Structures are given as structure tokens and as C-alpha cells.
Amino acid sequence: MVNIPDYFAGKNVLITGATGFMGKVLLEKLLRSCPEVKTVYVMVRSKAGQCPKARIDDMVSCPLFERLKDEQPDFAVKIVAVSSDLTLPELDLSKEDQSVLAENVHIVFHCAATIRFNEPLKDAMQLNVLATQKMLALAHRMKQLEIFLHVSTAYANCDRELIEEVVYPPPVDYRRLIDTLDWMDDELVSTLTPKLIGERPNTYTYTKALAEYMVQQEAGDLNVAIVRPSIVGASWKEPFPGWIDNFNGPSGIFIAAGKGILRTMRASNDAVADLVPVDVVINATLAAAWFSGSQRPKNIMVYNCTTGGINPFRWGEVEYCINMTFKTNPLEQAFRRPNVNLRSNPFTYQYWTTVGHTLPALLYDGYLRLTGRKPRMMKTITRLHKAMMVLEYFTSHTWVWNNDNVGMLLTQMSPEDKKMFNFDVRQLHWAEYMENYCMGTKKYVLNEELSGLPAARKHLNKLRNIRYTFNTVLVVFIWRVFIARSQMARNIWYFVVSLCFKFLSYFRASSTMR
């Protein structure tokens, strides 16, 4: 078998979703690690008055591509922007572009999808199922196509406890559902959605399951592989540790915790946080395309790109790492000191949400109104709660994954490829990764310079002093109003204080004797 860079040498690659988080990393890694790749076509729609080429030019000027720029200054000439809209008939491709792609493309990476969990079912079907169907139709016309790689999600079948590397049949026939949704109005679809998705938590996981099955049914003689990542997070190593560019998924939650806005979260301390670094997913994706493209296996290869069964990391450990990192390296202008806590009980969670989120937000907004400024904290808290509700299902459950195909893929790779396209998560040190992840949100999402850390630490110390002062005033107030006026309360208070002194005296005597 040729190694991975040699397999991609001289090949023309087509990528959908190249402007998304994973798509960017895929494009950068492909061009940097497979320098002999011939052309990379990226399907992009016009947006906000920018043409596809302008959007790609803007994208490759971001920090993610700096290493590639240093190593290959002329890399951008290999990128060809193709104007397309996946929601429109024939993908809104011109006849000329259809012909160019049909004649030249060897490898397709279909990464485009809506990742909004609460997307209306019609829109989710349009972007995750129908767009994939159109991409398959285009792939059938490609004369030199070697592999069609579809990026799905490990949670497509999250209604199961054990998820193996196979395509599961969905609860409904996707063809009949497409026909039915075509004539239904939005209100009726919204009413029927909970019954349709069943035990799955949202339209995203439901439509990704339908898309997988549709790929299997309509692949025909196409050579197809499916990669299923779990919760995709910041980069582990490449092109540098901690790269992240959005608030999606856990990143927004981490930032809210670092700012001191998020104080409590519904999650199980013991549930496995199936985070997987984006560069791990991309390396596995390129390796999967290489293996299926060069070996042409008889069946569709499915890869569960997860960490929970190989190198488990629990939400309780995530909480600890976030608090420690942001106390040591705080975010600028934090609202409170970072101190997020996980609650699995719905009643205690609701109590601490009210005490730790809603009441402080109302008080702060009241302060802003008094000082003539526009209130904003309650709006932020509302958005935060919506984001946490979306993630709650995934922070409270643990799945068992089969990763045999991922393990097999590693054994097929040469030692050089294993280093260059490393996706062996057994080597992942979670505490170090989480620190880099949190610092990545600070540097690349919030654009905060490390030179501002001394001022941020000073601000955090100020918040700590304010908290201690407030707690002292509160204790004095409770004493004056409640305890000092009641003989029984005073007796209880004196009993507790004397008990504490006895314990202190005992430990002091024990340490003296030693």
C-alpha cells in the first residue's frame, strides 16, 4: 500500500462544508500534509455580499493557515472555489462546473451539514438528507471517483446504548418522509416532529441517521466510507494546540464558565464526556479515504471516531479542568470568579440556576438601568440556558462504542503515516488538552492577548475580595436580624461555634503531640 501523501498525490479533491469548523481543518491538513495533491475544489455559496472566492480568500487568511502559509507560500493556487448552494436543485452548479467536477474529481469529502440541534425538521432534512442525496447524484457522474467519504455523527444512533460501526435502518422510510414533508405546512411538521424523532433528542441526530441510511441505499457502485465523530472540540496538536474558532458545542459553555456567568450545569459527574479533538477527526477522515480509496472494500466502512471507550474522560473532570485553568489564566473582564458545578438532580439544579444565574443577572441588569445603561445579562443567561438544554442529553448519558474499524485503520498505516496523521487517542493527555482548549477559546474566539493576563488576574482578585466582603456583610445581617433576636437561635449558634473550637483544639493537640 502507498502511504497517505502518495495516495493523494496528483488527485483532485472536492470538499463540501469547507468554510465550517471541520472543513477548514480538513482543507488545511490536506494541503499541508499532502503537498502533491493537485487541486482542491471547495463548494461555497455566496454570503453577506461576498462571492465564493472572496469567502475562501478571507478564510485562508485566518491563523489556522499560518503554518501552511510558512511551509507552502503558494498553497492557495490549488484551491478552486465553486459557486454552489446545496439546498437548491442540482446544487445550484453551473453546467460548466458540473462538467469540470464530473470529469476531474477523484475524492469527495462531504462535510456540509447543519449542526444546529434545534433546527426545524424541514430545514434539517433539506441540509442533512436532501443535500447528501444531491451530492451522491453528482458523485455518480464522476468518471474518476475513487472514494465518497461522508461525515456523519457518532450520535446518529444515540437512541441505542451500544453503537457499532454499521449503518442502522432508521425508524421511517426516508423517501416517504421526504414526500410527506413536501406537502405539510411548517406548523403541522412542528407538531409531528416529537413523534417522528422518537427517543432521539433533536432533529440533528435524527436527520444524520436518515442520511447514513440514504447513503447506503443510493451508493450503488460508488465506493463509500462514513466517519462518525462525537463532540468535536479544539485541536490537540495540529496545526497548533487549542485552535478553535466558534462558540458551538462545549466551547461556548467553557467561555461562559470562564467569564463566571455559568455557575451550574445539568450533567452527571460520572458520565463520559466524549470530546474528540478536531485534528484527530480530520486525520482519521483522511486515513479512511486513503484506505477505502486504495483497497476498495466490499462493504461500506463506518468509523466511530470517539474517545469514550478508548481513553475515557468524565464531565466531573471537565468541570475541574475548566475551573483550574480559568482561575490560573482568567478571561478578561470576568463577571465572577470561575466556579462551575455540575448537578444531576433536577431540583437542586433548578435551585442553583435561580440562585447562581437568574438572581445575579436581574440584580446586575437593575444596576445597569440605574446607571443609565442598557440591561443585557438576563438576555445572556436566557441564551446560555437554551444552549445548556441542548447539551443536557449528551452530558447526562454514556454510550458504549465499537471502534474496531478505527483500530484496524491504525494497524494498516505505516509508522510515518501514524506520526503525520495521528488519531490514536490513547496518547491524549486530557488535563493538558483541556488547558490548551480553554486557552484557545481565550486567544482565538475572544481574541484576548496573553499580555492581558496580569490585568485579568488583578480583576479576578478584586472579584474575590468583593465576594468575601459580601459574604461577611450577609453573615452579620443574618446575625443581627435573625440570630441575635432569638434565644434558641443563639443557643444553636453557640453550640455550633463551641463544637468547631473543640475540633480545632483536638487537631492542634494531635499535631503538637506528633
Description:
It is a single chain. The chain has 514 residues and is α/β, with parallel strands linked by helices. Among the domains are: 4-239 and 276-311 and 399-423, NAD(P)-binding Rossmann-like Domain (Rossmann fold, 3-Layer(aba) Sandwich), CATH 3.40.50; 452-513. Helix content is 53%, strand content 10%. Strand 4, helix 6 and strand 5 (147-151) form a beta-alpha-beta unit.
Number of strands: 13
* Strand fraction: 5-15%
Approximate shape: elongated
**Mean pLDDT over the residues:** 90
Structural class: alpha/beta
List the total number of helices.
Answer: 19
CATH domain fold name of the domain at 4-239 and 276-311 and 399-423: Rossmann fold
Radius of gyration: 27 Å
Major beta sheet, strand line-up:
3-2-1-4-5-7-11
CATH class of the domain at 4-239 and 276-311 and 399-423: Alpha Beta
Largest sheet: 7 strands, parallel
- The first-to-last residue Cα distance is 68 Å
Short characterization:
The chain is α/β, with parallel strands linked by helices and 514 residues long. The protein is 53% helix and 10% strand. Among the domains are: 4-239 and 276-311 and 399-423, Rossmann fold (3-Layer(aba) Sandwich), CATH 3.40.50.720; 452-513.
Furnish the topology, listing elements before pairings.
Elements: H1 4-8, E1 12-16, H2 21-33, E2 39-44, H3 52-59, H4 66-71, E3 79-83, H5 95-104, E4 107-110, H6 121-140, E5 147-151, E6 162-163, H7 174-183, H8 186-197, H9 203-218, E7 224-229, E8 231-233, H10 250-258, E9 264-266, E10 275-277, H11 278-295, E11 301-305, H12 315-328, E12 341-343, H13 346-370, H14 377-395, E13 400-401, H15 404-412, H16 415-420, H17 430-445, H18 453-483, H19 487-513
